[in-house]
Specification:
The chain has 297 residues and is an alpha/beta fold. It is 43% helix and 16% strand. Bound molecules: 3-hydroxy-3-methylglutaryl-coenzyme A and magnesium ion (MG).
């Protein structure tokens, strides 16, 4: 098999937004430089959100401005509204990620508006992005379960995904926000989405609270999904989904893909070093099984 799988590294955003240690600009630059060095080509750098809501992401535009930017790496910033979009574009950002959910309660807690209101805000962002030639990625949280409402219907998820694609997102990442889903549930969501949206426009974003993330990646691969978000060392969680742990670790995702014969463009040894460095800085052990095994062998 010689199939390419795109890894979107979200550790500097999804990971660090939920870490109690707030890293300095230099520490974040070091992390991102190490990720670039490991061969990752799609890196979410931070968020242009209210610092009152997510203090860990304050300074994301300064961070973006100071990055060394190889031309073959896509760096992006998360933006909930036009204010965030304008802040991102002002520092030269050429790709933003907009984010909403398939659950009304989660969306309200996360971005303080209804799903419909969030989509209206995104229409504004999209109009500017089209004029500016900026790429827009979409996120839909709660693809299976919501921390406040429980199970979410796959049809509701597929609806929001289709809306984001229709308004011009080049890809939509489905967030398994609280890491409770099992592969059968995830398959049902892809099945519903695939009725309306081309598979190559879909991405999987699996949190690993119950250790199901890699199983969910495997199920998604079998349904044709070829883009996955992951977080170095399994950092992070979501501040508005209490108890949710980090994303699938990039090292674990890479292990699965590499052993199954998929191409990723990632250098395993450099990836392991990137994970080791950030965990040493944070002063705790990695949540990646592949990294723990690598350093023990
Ligand atoms: P709001 O309070 O409704 O907004 O928050 P507002 O328009 O009334 O403004 C309130 C204050 O925020 C004002 O400042 C604005 O200027 C400021 P004040 O006058 O009080 O000093 N403000 C901003 N500041 C910086 N950047 C902005 C911005 N917009 C307004 N863009 C808002 C609405 C969306 C801003 C707020 O709810 C927010 O920032 N939420 C952030 C939520 C967040 O970052 N969540 C984590 C990321 S999502 C996630 O992790 C899920 C995902 O990983 C997928 C998955 O796993 O499911 C993507
Ligand atoms: Mg997430």
């Amino acid at each position: 098999m010689n199939d390419f799988v795109k890894i979107v590294e979200v550790g500097a955003r999804d990971g660090l937004q939920n870490e109690s240690v707030v890293l300095s600009l230099d520490d974040k630059l070091t992390l991102i430089n190490n990720l670039v060095d490991a061969g990752l080509k799609d890196i979410e750098v931070g968020s242009c959100v209210s610092p009152k809501w997510v203090p860990q992401m304050a300074g994301s535009t300064e961070l973006f401005a100071q990055l060394t930017k190889p031309t073959d790496v896509n760096f992006s910033l998360l933006t909930p509204n036009l204010k965030g979009y304008q802040a991102a574009v002002a520092v030269g950002c050429r790709e933003v990620a907009i984010f909403t959910g398939a659950s009304e309660s989660f969306t309200q807690k996360n971005i303080n508006c209804t799903i419909a209101e969030s989509l209206a805000r995104f229409d504004d962002i999209m109009a500017h992005a089209k004029a500016d030639g900026v790429k827009v990625r979409g996120y839909v949280s709660c693809m299976v379960d919501c921390p406040y409402e429980g199970a979410i219907s796959p049809v509701a998820v597929a609806d929001v995904v289709a809306r984001l694609i229709d308004m011009g997102c080049y890809e939509v990442s489905l967030g398994e926000t609280i890491g409770t889903a099992t592969p059968d549930k995830v398959e049902a969501v892809w099945h519903e989405c695939q009725k309306r949206t081309d598979t190559h426009l879909l991405a999987g974003h699996f949190h690993n609270t119950y250790g199901m993330a890699i199983a969910n990646v495997y199920a998604s691969l079998n349904m044709g999904i070829r883009t996955f978000d992951s977080s170095i060392a399994g950092l992070g969680g979501c501040p508005y989904a209490k108890g949710a742990s980090g994303n699938v670790a990039t090292e674990d995702l890479h292990y699965l893909l590499d052993k199954m014969g998929y191409q990723t463009g990632v250098d395993k040894d450099k990836l392991m070093h990137a994970g080791k460095a950030i965990m040493e800085r944070l002063g705790r052990t990695s949540r990646s099984n592949a990294a723990i095994a690598y350093w023990q062998s």
